[in-house]
Amino acid sequence: MLAVVVIADVAGRLSECLTALGLERFQNVELHLLLASELSAADEAGVQACEAVTLHRLGSAPDVALAALRDNYWSCLLEYVNQHVPNRQEYLFVPASAGLPPHFMRRLLSIKRESAANILLPLSVRHPFTSAFLSSDHQPGLDVQAMDQWLSSYASGQLMDVPVLAGHVAVMDAEVVSAYREANSVAVDQVLQDKGVGMVLTDRLYVDDADWPPQRAPAGLPATWEQLLVRRHPFTGLRHALTDLSRRCQQPEATSVVNQPVRLHISHNWGGGLGRWVEDFAAADTGVRNLVLRPIGDWDAFGYKLALFESPTSDVPIREWSLNLPILSTLVTHVQYRSIMDEIIQHWCPDTVIVSSVIGHSLDCLRTAVPTLYVWHDFYPVCPFITATFEHPCTSCNSTRLKQCWKENPSERFFLHEGVEHWARLRHHFAALLNEGEIIQIAPSVSVVDRVHSLFPRMHEPIHVIEHGLGQDLLASLAPIAQIDDVRPAGEKLTIVILGSLEAHKGGGLLKVVWRELIEHYHVVLLGCGTSGASFQSSPSVTVVERYERAQLGELLRQFSPDLGLLLSQVPETFSYTLSELWAAGLPVVATDVGAFADRIKEGENGWLIAKDGADMLATLASIDADRQTLLKIREDVSRSLRKNSVSMLLEYRAFFPDINLSEIYFPLSRENEDADGLSFQGSLIVRSGSSYLDVLKDFCKFTNNKLRASKKVPRIIRSFFKNI
């Protein structure tokens, strides 16, 4: 049980503190309020909102209690909890006036458990040993969130032993609390040392206790310790930077990504539906940093390099690695790749890895110690042809069929340089990894689950179904079209829209077979068909838009006002964004009876399923054309149906995410702290011990030159002098 002891020291601040603590997100936590001030109405409302809280009056009157705390802060608190809140496993002490950064409690507790110390202290303001600044008199010019963000640029994840219980915020073990009944803080510190209590200061967490008066180093401390902790503090570099930034009130950049949990996406670089899913996922996953690791390659090798991107929409990687041995398709293992994954995990600390594709990767991406999800966007690497189609959708793929498929499948080959033995070995190891049960598997439709288990029965672990959701902006742009509750009257040609590519596997061949008859009876709009649209003859009944931006889809559909959609994929889709888009626009859909179409379309309710031949397609369209009242009713039903958005999709995924370890969310640490023995603080300068006077002077002149170049009012002769030194 963790006892959270909040000291109500300033009226009007308690409610804010309780909100920042977020105790409702924790189990086995009890709240104790030590009243050292009167409660405001807002404070009382905050207390009432807590599920369970114990109130204690500290002292006979607020002014007496505060005076006692200022004189002997820790002895007062330890004495009180020994009497009134004994025998808890851990204690967390926080003044209500202290500014707390996001995820404060999770981060503090995680760091303490990693440190194995008895007492953990965060950086603060008012004690010279634990201050984030060069002086405990410093008045921060930035709020706690801004300082929290800046901290990530200068912290190195160090822990520093401290000889006294300093500052006003600490988390400590129960045995520490029960050992002390001394009358003043000096005695408390002496007992800490006598008992061999491990007490450390972390540079990964900052709280703002500036409302309290500055403290001084305790009397009687060995001079060596005092000199180290005041003049040559181990965090001198960090403190100098934060003091300067705070004094100048310099806000961190708006694009700062610190103080966010991290997810790492493993993806290919082909874009398509997979790339879109990653983009939509990241856009919905607010407050979380979604990094993407993609391979860079070509048709000879899909992984010459690995590139880590800040987000799915980033064009410039934040880090690149050249692979000494390029990955042609996917490798079972790759020592350098494993080292790169270790580096990413160490420096960017993802709490979840989401693998959407292993093309251009090694299966080592599935072997990390980080909780991992695998999303079945296609059937690779179980099927090296990706779509699991050989003459017709495959329902099995034993070694004999794999060999035959490898020799005879006319589908496009993406992977040219490895034989069937490679694919048999790869999918064996792939299945073994997933069968270990540590990796959560997700598929966007039931048909994917059925086919994976049918194609490769040895993959026996469960696969959960979570449908993809559309981005909220796209849904909003399509909603007005869905409100149109009419179809063209009898005697006027219906307008049919076909979204997306018209390559052969997407139905281009089937469309060519029926094309002349189709445009004789219907207006046809081809949206986003690419250059394949040129192969369809031009006619007044045909409109071709080769490419469009996703944000333009709503306007295009509004312009052409189609009555229904047509999707003719010849291979099983694992989901189909185009189907979701047409439904979001209120359009019923005629689609081939394969894959996710068969899962999602309910005949006569939101669309129609057809065989993969032209006769059935034309007959179904003729039936719809002849009964436009039924078409209108189905369109009305589709328009009223709720469409899944990416936010609701994300909520379903979050059920499978682990509790976030927030002790590490500040990394990457962009610089290492200097050795404490190597720095000394001299006014506004930090000088490395052992540096010659000439080297220091040269660096000072370079610094001065840069400052002068930026100051155009300084006479040119002075600028020239320093430039020439």
Automatic annotation (TrEMBL):
State the UniProt keywords alphabetically. Transferase
Decide whether keyword Calcium is in the record.
no
Superkingdom per UniProt: Bacteria
GO molecular function terms noted in the UniProt entry: glycosyltransferase activity
- Which Pfam families does this chain map to? Glyco_trans_1_4 (PF13692)
Q: Which SUPFAM superfamilies match?
A: UDP-Glycosyltransferase/glycogen phosphorylase (SSF53756)
- Record-linked CDD domains: GT4_PimA-like
**Annotated PANTHER family:** SULFOQUINOVOSYL TRANSFERASE SQD2, TRANSFERASE
Q: What is this protein called?
A: Glycosyltransferase family 4 protein
Species the sequence originates in: Marinobacterium marinum
